[in-house]
């Protein structure tokens, strides 16, 4: 693919409002924006979605930076390649670190599509012209959560996700359901429960949730399969599905009826497309999860969500839900619960250089001829 250079921008931006889960209150979002440039000057964009601290997975912005700089960029540069899929395979030699791998792999897919002059959604076989958008209500008091949900419904979001944890669950879901009798609601537990909580989780069955996301351990598949036998609400796995192998195991065990596919969590497109294929083959529903991300990752999520199987609204909110000003020139906008797919080459967005430099804390350039043969 004739890569000439890679640039990493480590950025930090305050959220308009803090985002609260039982694990973490996110007030300031750090992230890594990656530019991969070829010899003709065409530029592909990726985004590292690890948080500042390891509350969602083990990765952080600092570990991603280390992996990119010291391992993944040199590995990418260790021999030539013709397609970004080869890099997805090559990165399998490195254990874990899915978000760091995804950040660079996503940039290469974007670059490849731009080199061909086609939208990335087209390259991966997407067909949807509009992507269905849902949004997340962070944890808070019941009136606060109802207010947040009301605002989102007014903005047209078609599905609302609630963050729940033991003691902040049945009452919240009951109130939200009675307030919005016909709204598509789902609850995300971010691993807050154990099998001892089966009665509490059974108590949620009557509220007609679309699904309950990741109730049990972050790396568990067996207990989720036991729980699914006890509750009628479909289980959606998030944190537990990192690789296609995890997905095959979840299928064997009947651990879930739904999977939230996040490019960052699964290490990029090669893995995400394989997980998607497995889900389609086995009648498991899919949707695209969010990571409180900036516009580059949002545009990648949009491309992925044009695949036919993404029938459940994803965490694809407007840039303006979190940011005063995003780092792309045309912010993502949800209208009446949908986002139009982006028609430009690659992911269809460009960097807002002024905004990017205003929020950049650290920038690093790699000229690949210099790093060649170091790995
Ligand atoms: Mg989740």
From TrEMBL:
EC number(s) given by UniProt: 4.2.1.113
Keyword Magnesium set for record: yes
- Which Gene Ontology BP terms does the record give? amino acid catabolic process; menaquinone biosynthetic process
Cross-referenced CDD domains, in alphabetical order?
NAAAR
InterPro entries associated with the record: Enolase-like_C_sf, Enolase-like_N, Enolase_C-like, Mandel_Rmase/mucon_lact_enz_CS, Mandelate_racemase_C, Mandelate_racemase_N_dom, MenC, OSBS/NAAAR
Query: Needs which cofactor?
Result: a divalent metal cation
Mandelate racemase/muconate lactonizing enzyme C-terminal domain sequence ranges: 142-234
Query: PANTHER family recorded for this chain?
Result: O-SUCCINYLBENZOATE SYNTHASE, O-SUCCINYLBENZOATE SYNTHASE-RELATED
Q: What is this protein called?
A: o-succinylbenzoate synthase
Q: Which organism is it from?
A: Rossellomorea vietnamensis
Gene name for this UniProt entry: menC
């Amino acid at each position: 693919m004739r890569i000439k250079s890679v640039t990493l921008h480590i950025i930090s931006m305050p959220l308009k409002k803090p985002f609260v889960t039982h694990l973490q209150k996110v007030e300031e979002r750090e992230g890594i924006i990656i530019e991969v440039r070829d010899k003709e000057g065409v530029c592909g964009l990726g985004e590292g979605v690890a948080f500042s601290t390891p509350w969602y997975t083990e990765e952080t912005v600092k570990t991603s930076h280390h992996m990119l700089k010291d391992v993944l960029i040199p590995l990418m540069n260790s021999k030539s390649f013709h397609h970004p899929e080869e890099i997805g395979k090559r990165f399998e030699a490195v254990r874990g670190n899915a978000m760091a791998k995804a950040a660079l792999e996503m940039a290469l897919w974007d670059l490849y599509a731009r080199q061909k002059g086609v939208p990335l959604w087209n390259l991966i076989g997407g067909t949807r012209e509009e992507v269905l958008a849902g949004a997340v209500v962070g944890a808070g008091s019941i009136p606060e959560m109802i207010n947040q949900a009301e605002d989102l419904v007014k903005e047209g979001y078609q599905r609302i996700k609630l963050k729940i944890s033991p003691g902040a669950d049945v009452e919240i879901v009951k109130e939200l359901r009675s307030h919005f009798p016909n709204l598509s609601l789902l609850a995300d537990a971010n691993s807050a429960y154990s099998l001892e909580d089966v009665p509490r989780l059974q108590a949620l069955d009557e509220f007609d949730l679309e699904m309950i996301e990741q109730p049990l351990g972050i790396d568990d598949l067996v207990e989720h399969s036991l729980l699914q036998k006890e509750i009628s609400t479909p289980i959606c796995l998030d944190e537990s599905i990192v690789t296609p192998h995890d997905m095959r195991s979840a299928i064997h065990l009947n651990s879930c009826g739904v999977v939230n596919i996040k490019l960052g969590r699964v290490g990029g497109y090669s893995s995400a497309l394989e997980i998607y294929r497995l889900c389609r083959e086995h009648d498991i529903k899919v949707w695209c999860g969010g990571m409180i991300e900036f516009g580059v990752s949002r545009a990648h999520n949009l491309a992925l969500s044009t695949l036919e199987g993404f029938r459940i609204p994803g965490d694809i909110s407007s840039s303006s839900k979190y940011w005063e000003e995003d780092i792309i020139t045309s912010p993502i906008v949800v209208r009446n619960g949908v986002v139009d797919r982006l028609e430009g080459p690659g992911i269809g967005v460009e960097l807002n250089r002024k905004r990017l430099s205003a929020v950049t804390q650290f920038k690093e350039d790699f000229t690949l001829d210099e790093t060649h043969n170091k790995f």
